[in-house]
Structures are given as structure tokens and as C-alpha cells.
Amino acid sequence: MGTPKTILCTLATLGLAAAAGGAWLVWGGLYNVSATEQHTQPVYSLLETAMRQSVRLRARGIEPPALGAEAQVVHGAACYREKCVQCHGAPGVAQGDIGKSMQPLPGPLVDARQRWNARELYWVTKNGIKMSGMPAWEYRLSDQDLWALVAFLERLPDMTPQQYAQASAPMMPSGQGAPGGPACGPGPRAAGGAQDSVRRGQRALAQYACNACHTIPGTTGSFPQVGPPLAGMARRATIGGKLANTPDNMVQWLRHTRTVDPLTAMPEMGVTEQDARDIAAYLATLD
């Protein structure tokens, strides 16, 4: 048996070798990140296990409401048609080009209830999964929509292609089968204190893709230079060179950018009133 010193030296050597190998793998560009190449099975299994355990840990305190009413399932089917089919497909319906071209592949959800319980399905749909292509729908769907989707997913394994087509058919308010407006969308958010608003605003910045163009303190990214950096936003006299820098004007700018400045390259991102106020609260802390 080796001495403690020998054991420590051996472990240190192995650790250094592993670190050197990892650095070589990363900086040498050896791992193929192409979406036309599958992950190796060990990498896939490791990521899948980490994802499952993370979801189970965070979803365990969620209390599902009553699920399964026919109207709820039909509403969930409409939301599924609008938001989910493009990646996951449905009975008798293939995934769209986006879903078929992703890696890892977003598989069909006809077996979702066998792998996830209701609270876990809700958590995944609401929060998404990092680095998987699964988006977070919290800022796009109301809580009612999210639970309706869960109810639909629990019914989906029992549906034939014909039943799915009937359940998900676009309907006018009159109930006559015809293309109608969006079936689902963001809902109201409960207003909290000032600190809650700041915290929500920091999170909303990423969900509305603000950090895709702007370098923003408190958000992670690759330091983009498309739009101006937002450090020191609280000290600036104007917003976009057009409006005085006040909370209400920031909300107006975030929600109606092209109305304020028709010549700006900044697009309107569909920010809700509450989310805009939360973002304004966070930006006001950047001094």
C-alpha cells in the first residue's frame, strides 16, 4: 500500500492530466459541435441524466391543479399546434424542418406521460432546458395555457391521428371550424415589491433576447456589439436619443420602439406591460 504522500501525488498527477486533456479538447476544437453529428452516447447519457435529475429536484414542490377537462385538453391541443408541433410533431404529423435539424433531436411527445409526471411536464414547458433547444414558455404562455398543455400531453398517447387533427383544428369563437386568432399567449404577472421587480427584469432581459444584441451587466453572453452596451443606463439623460430617461418612457421604448423612432434598427420584441416595467426597474439599477 502506498504512503499518503504517494497517493496524493498520484491523485494530483491524474487531476492535472485530466485538466490538460480537457483543455486540449476545448482549445484544440476537437469536439465536433456540428448539429449534423450526434453526441457520443456517453455524452448524451450524461446530459440526459443531469437534465432528468435537475427537473425532478425543481418540480417536486409544484402542486398540479385538476387536469383532464375536455375544454382544457382542447385548449392545450390548440397551444400545442401553435408552439410545439414544429419541433415535436404529433400523431400523423411530422416535425418541421427546425425540429428535424436539431441536435439532440426533440423527439415525439406521445410517450411524455410515461417519462414525466404532471408537475415535471409543467416545469419543463415553463422553464425550458438549457443547451437542448427546448425553449422556456413562461414569457409566451399564461399559466392556464401551460397547464392546458400538460393536460393535453397526458391525453396525447391515447389519440389517433384523426382525433389529434380534430382536437387541434383552429376554431373561431363561434365554434365553427375555421382559422382563428392565436389560441394562447402570455398572461398577467403578479406584481411584487421593488426588489422582486428588479429580479424579474434581469431575467426578462434574457427571455426577450436583449442580451443577444446588447452587453448588459448581470447577464451572460459573448459580449455582442450589435447594439450599444447598457452599463450605466441609469445615468443616461435620454433613451435611444429620443426620450427622457424615465421609467415610463423606458416602458414606451421597450414596447413601441418603432413608433418612438421609425428609423431605428431595434425591433419590437413583443414585451408585455409588466415585463417592460420589470426590465425598466432593472436597467434603473445600472449606474
From TrEMBL:
Name of the protein in its database record: Cytochrome C
Record bears the keyword Nucleotide-binding: no
GO molecular function, one term: heme binding
InterPro entries registered for this protein in UniProt: Cyt_c-like_dom (IPR009056), Cyt_c-like_dom_sf (IPR036909), Cytochrome_c550/c551-like (IPR051811)
Transmembrane parts of this sequence: none
Residue ranges of domain Cytochrome c in the record: 71-157, 196-287
Keywords attached to this entry: Electron transport, Heme, Iron, Metal-binding, Transport
Residue segments, region Disordered: 169-195
Domain of life per record: Bacteria
